[in-house]
Write a structure and sequence with these properties.
By secondary structure, the protein is an alpha+beta fold. It has one helix at 47-72; strands at 11-14, 29-32. Strands 1-2 form a two-stranded parallel sheet.
Length: 73
């Protein structure tokens, strides 16, 4: 994030749920979507279960982006 020019950004969306979100300096509209990280070190999860976790998060992000696009643009 250190290489992003704050003047070139008008919207920042943070997805962090349990961890600390990065700070973006600059006068910008901020949205916070606390979506849990799908990654896991749980050895009991199968490869297919891990893939499904990532697909579920992908679906959540896609739905929110579609809603944002419908209301913002």
């Amino acid at each position: 994030m250190d290489t992003i020019d704050p003047a070139s950004v008008d919207l920042v969306i943070t997805l962090c749920a349990e961890e600390v979100c990065p700070v973006f300096l600059g006068k910008v509209h901020r949205l916070h979507w606390p979506i849990p990280d799908p990654a896991s070190n749980d050895p009991s999860l199968s490869r297919e279960q891990m893939i499904e976790r990532f697909r579920a998060v992908r679906g959540q992000i896609l739905a929110r982006l579609e809603e944002l696009a419908a209301t913002r643009f």
